[in-house]
Amino acid sequence: MSALQPARGTHDLIGEEQRRFHRVADTARRVAATYGFDEWITPIFEDTRVFSRTLGETSDVVTKEMYSFDDRGGESITLRPEGTAGVCRALVSNGLTQSLPQKVFYAGPMFRYERPQKGRYRQFHQIGTELIGPAEPLADAEVISCGWDILKALGVSDDTVLELNTLGDKESRDAYRTALVGYFTDHKAALSPDSLNRLERNPMRILDSKEDADRRIVAGAPTIAPYLTDSASAFYAKLQDHLTRFRVPFVENPRIVRGLDYYGHTAFEFVTSKLGSQGTVMAGGRYDGLVAEMGGPMTPAVGWAAGIERLSMLMETAPPAPTPVAVIPIGDAAEATAIDILQALRANGIRAEMSYRGNLKRRMERANKAGARAAVILGDDDIANGVAQIKDLTNGTQDAVPFAHIPSRLK
Length: 411
Ligand code: ATP
Ligand code: MG
What we know:
The protein is 37% helix and 21% strand. It is an alpha+beta fold. The protein folds into 2 domains: 16-169 and 229-314, BirA Bifunctional Protein, domain 2, CATH 3.30.930; 325-410, 3-Layer(aba) Sandwich (Rossmann fold), CATH 3.40.50.800. Strands 1-5-6-11-10-9-7-8 form an 8-stranded mixed sheet. A 5-stranded mixed sheet has the order 13-12-14-15-16, with helices on both faces. It binds adenosine-5'-triphosphate (ATP) and magnesium ion (MG). Magnesium ion (MG) binds at residues 60, 259.
């Protein structure tokens, strides 16, 4: 029988990869907590409308990437492609729209039907934060600063640059949209079929296209700056002031629009040149209209999401493998006492393991292979004397230690 393979675009996290993964998620959760973000755990699948209504009909995610299916009861279900829509749905479902601000952290799997490549998978994982309630640019700055602090704590901030843009308010965007439609209509002949479709429905989306043909035309497209209203400009200027105050370095990039329809004002990406074309590690912006789309009141919000896999790849050094203590009985009679010591070590929070069979030599070999830092060796004579031989496997020294002192010696 042929061995079964993982589904395309999925991967198993084992050993070092698993440790990198958890370092990213744990570090992010810890840093976000210092900013007051609490974790929400929302379902991995939702009513399809949670995404189709809110991500925008022209977004790549909705048009090509969702894992949707009818369940046995005939309901259309979608495996979540991103975290923000579910958090906003949960805000409304749980009656929290009047308990603002809410500062939400999440971490978990996301699903997108994409062409798998390095840094791009069909099941991938994100960490994210959402700050729901405040309309002030201070909130945007704080959310971005939290992201930056996470990148610093992971040791990857030197390899990433914050690229910042504004999408203005609705009035700015309407004026800009008209300018873009004019420009892209003049270059219609060279646009990709996807972008021709976007031209009708959401021309700003063309700026986000990854097609080479589109990118050449995008390079000459007008930017939003001349179309910003005074208040949108003031918002953007204030955000930049705050970022400076928070000591978050940034560059402006007027091409950043974000893939989803619900963004306004702030749009940003933390990008790296170290991951080829999958260079965006963390991305987000302000999405004041989303909660209302979900059936709640008009509620300002800002947040970001980051790919755990991409951050894991960026991390220079992996967290070290754990170093257990090996408990080694010599002979069958010693095993019972060895179990007592094994459990005493574990009760003291020490990672301790004992092989299931084998003589001293085999057991020592296995302990070394497992990277054990010490061996607790128990012969019949030792047991009679109430001691075990503790061998330090990093330097080879050995001495006899009374049972009661073993855990504290190995702490
Ligand atoms: P991209 O432009 O790379 O397709 P995106 O704009 O679709 O990214 P977002 O929806 O903003 O990505 O998701 C936020 C982050 O999640 C990305 O910056 C990236 O780190 C990660 N991410 C998105 N899609 C994938 C995927 N298929 N595999 C791995 N990570 C992903
Ligand atoms: Mg994408």
